[in-house]
Amino acid sequence: MTSPQLHKIFCLILLLQSATWLMADTIVLKSGERLEATITKTTDTAVEAEVKMSPSITDVRVIQKTDIASIEKPDPAEAEFAAVKAVGSSPNSLSAADYNTVIHTKINAFIGKYPASPLVAEAREMIAALEKEKERVALGEVKVENIWYTPTELEKQKDQVNATLLFQQMKSLGQSGDSLGALNVFTKLEKTYPGTPAYPSAVEYAQQLIPNVQTEINTKKSVYANEMTERKKGMDLLPDFKKAPLNAAAASEEAKANAALDAAIKSGTKWTPIYPRNKKSIDELQKTVTAETTRLATIKTAPMLASIAAVGEAKKQMAAGDLPGATASLQKATTLWSANLLLKDANADLITAKATPIPTPTPSPTPKGPVKSAMKTPLPRTP
Questions:
Q1: Under DSSP, is residue 383 helix (H, G, I), strand (E, B) or coil?
Q2: Integer CA distances (angstroms), 202 to 198, 298, 334, in order
Q3: CA-to-CA distance for 218 and 232, rounded, in angstroms?
Q4: What is the mean pLDDT of residues 26-54?
Q5: Is the separation of the CB atoms in 193 and 159 below 8 Å?
Q6: Do 272 and 264 meet the contact criterion of CB atoms below 8 Å apart?
Q7: Model-level pTM?
Q8: How many CB atoms lie under 10 A from the CB of residue 38?
Q9: Of 223, 246, 320, 383, which residue is the least packed, with the fewest Cβ within 10 Å?
Q10: How far is residue 342 from each of residues 192, 231, 297, 319, measured CA to CA in Å?
Q11: Cα separation of 179 and 209, whole Å?
Q12: Which pLDDT tens digit goes with each residue over 92-115?
């Protein structure tokens, strides 16, 4: 994978994460409960707000003003700096142009707007750190998950890097509420990089996302049933000459949705979308949920993670010169998960280490001539 391709993915990940940058208000209820929320509507008697239930789930609530003790607004400087910091502290490197954008358009703009803020010192430290990163990128290095790779290392470990980027994209989509998109990214990761360290964690995350899809299916089923019931009631009240065009329009809509669904399946999309008023798309996704729930339950991630840890232990043992220990650790890693991609390089390193002769200590030179005793001749005793 080339650096421009990496940078394109990095920018996508940052874009997907941007929704979490803004700081919400805090609604303090008279009961003592504190709600992190974004107020969307205010009336004389109540406020409507999107309340954060978790990092990826919000709930719309109408709260009576008589129940509210206070509404705490975030410091504007803190809110803006949170957005700046989210970009500046990315675990992935950026392109030179993106570094300039972050430094000048984001951080320097913040400093100019809030020169008296206590956050300015941290902002300047961020600029210095980003300038150093920019220099490394200019030399061809790339940072992924806070690990820097030279061009040679990147080419050697491109599968691991690509899998890590896909897992990042998967998590970003999942956190933004796009469970279907996240699961389709997982399908690509699993098909292309099943032996990488990111794979077992991706499996576990996919298992967490599937219940969200099941909830969406249940909701769509209920909506579809209600719509069909209401449609039938409405059609029963119409004369026959008005029913025909409405039935034709409904049939055309269904045919288009079915064609789009068939095209998605043909293209290899496993987690297909649900189309409005289309039962076939609901049923298709339900089949996928049922099958994948069963299949993923059979994938044992614990041995995979233990294998990854064993390879890490072997590397430590090699660095310490404990080659028998490293051999045992790699044998354990192979037994736990033979498809572990880390084993290839680790075993190659072990072979090299075993083939490298241990340097023999150079003996101290033997002094020539008689050896003088270091003991001094005792002085005669005075009677």
A1: coil
A2: 6, 14, 21
A3: 21
A4: 87
A5: yes
A6: yes
A7: 0.70
A8: 13
A9: 383
A10: 16, 58, 24, 16
A11: 6
A12: 998 889 999 999 989 999 999 999
